Amino acid sequence: MDHAPAPPFAVHLVTGGGSSSGIALLLRSLAAARVVALDAEWKPRRRGSPAAADPAALGDDTTPASETSPAPPKFPTVTLLQVACRFSDGGGGEGERSEVFVVDLLSVPLADLWAPLRELFERPETLKLGFRFKQDLVYLSSTFSAALGCDSGFDRVEPFLDVTNIYYYLKGHDRQKKLPKETKSLATICEELLGILLSKELQCSDWSCRPLSEGQIQYAASDAYYLLDIFDLFQKRITMEGKCSSTTELTSDRHCSSVVIECSSSGYGICSGSCLMSIVTKYSEKIILTESDAKPRTSRRKEKLKIPANAKRKDNVDCSSEWQGPPPWDPSIGGDGYPKFLCDVMIEGLAKHLRCVGIDAAIPSSKKPEPRDLLNQTYKEGRILLTRDAKLLKYQYLAGNQVYRVKSLLKHDQLAEVINIFQLKISEDQLMSRCTKCNGSFIQKPLTLEEAVEASKGFQIIPTCLFNRNLEFWKCTDCNQLYWEGTQYHNAVQRFLSVCNISD
Ligand SMILES: [Zn+2]
């Protein structure tokens, strides 16, 4: 698997315990930054589970939260806030400098952060960048309200620029036209624009566990940091196209003109400074949370019925990831009773494991499928889409009960999870009954050695050491791959017997 090279930035992990210097640096950076990229992580909540059962929701005992015992949070508790700051550098040189912070909201007193964050979110001369940040803001607001009292949320971020819009601008999409319906993941955007592969492995890891692993910290930090790099591309393009020329009426706005002066005097350069403000004036938007945004969806199902098929959907999607049946193969809704899955590219290993226990598990036909392609295949073939990409869940309203987000990280745990969630009944004779290479089925009758040798001609070499043993062969009816009972086979059977709870 490809991994991003070591990231080109140092990360400040800001925790509450003993390193208040980290908080001080963070606050100074927030105050001085020209552009701030934001991202947040939280632990997805199980539907219907009381908030108190969520360790993240308990908050920090040192915050005023426990004294006033406020109502439990209505949304998942944000446990990590990532902030990448870019400022002008008085020391000249490139003129730009960045600091990247991963702020542990489980240990930093939220009371220390609230006012500086709120000021940052509303400061007109600092551009905020995010990737579909509205949902993050809803959760962040709820997290702060729960800890500090109901007036301690956030209700706006302005000026704001969504990286999705930057992406479409850079791709030459006409601003006057509607944006394409399918949304690109941040990983896709980073890969296309920066040529950087973000590891997706940790995307769905438990962000409420402490200590965070080095991998988690780096992953979280990159999600914010690369937003700055993408913004740089955008800024360069705008400058190149001369769209931030002096014709923009910067002086008509008091804020803007003062910023230009400030920028140039601090060495930021009149061009990039004015260009930034020109971008803010021309391209930025704002996120405003209304009362309805602060209300969680009580029932996804009810909500779904109310939404007409072609209705626009708000982007503050409940990240509840519980699957609600019945599956498309359920006989009660006309299915044939045979479970069928489509495993997203991140969990192709799970597809192989499912095939090992005889379950039909397809993988996407393309290496980099768009969400639309995944959903089309899911629909057409009556499958359930298994994914680790929480962002795909927002298509759940399109795909009915056909999208499930796998929570486990390891293949064996994932297999056990899927067996458990979908109540799959697996018998011993199902084990190794499907081609792990292509998901095809085997011909019913095991082949003799002679038949196997014949079948393998010009296609696959059967080790001669197998010739004197009394082995059974199977052939895949789709890709013709031959399988035989080797040591690996027996070991695998033993492993799967226990994963599938089959007693022999
Ligand atoms: Zn095959």
Automatic annotation (TrEMBL):
Protein name: DNA-directed RNA polymerases I, II, and III 7.3 kDa polypeptide
Pfam families found in the cross-reference section: DNA_pol_A_exo1 (PF01612), Mut7-C (PF01927)
Listed PANTHER family: 3'-5' EXONUCLEASE DOMAIN-CONTAINING PROTEIN, EXONUCLEASE MUT-7 HOMOLOG
SMART domains: 35EXOc (SM00474)
Source superkingdom: Eukaryota
Any GO CC annotation of this UniProt entry: DNA-directed RNA polymerase complex
Lineage per the UniProt record: Eukaryota, Viridiplantae, Streptophyta, Embryophyta, Tracheophyta
Residue intervals of the 3'-5' exonuclease domain: 11-239
Keyword hit for Cell cycle: no
Any GO molecular function: 3'-5' exonuclease activity
Record field: compositional bias (Low complexity): 50-69
Sequence segments annotated as region (Disordered): 46-75
